[in-house]
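Example 3.2
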Amino acid sequence: MASFPKPYIRLYEKFFIKRFRLNINQTEVADYFGLTRHEISKIELGQLGPPIPGLEFKGIKLTRVEICIILRRREGLNHTQLSGKMGVSRTWVSHMETGRSNPARLIEYWSS
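Structure, written as tokens:
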């Protein structure tokens, strides 16, 4: 098995991971900062930025599952597309990414 990738994490990806860890949706973030949900989506995709000034992103260490999420997003895959490539259900991919299912197969997929 190949080694697990450790990519450089871009600022907009850290912004996404911060929101993911707080378990809040884009609308909630948008309301807090006085932006639209669409603007938050563009920030998280690196299409608008930089992210909101003053946010602290130092020292963020990603888990393997968070790296898997970043890799999926970089490939432009949604849960349905990734599940087709892995031969699993879309729900299972979602559950692996959110910790409701063991992520071993997801980690293995991105390690190959």
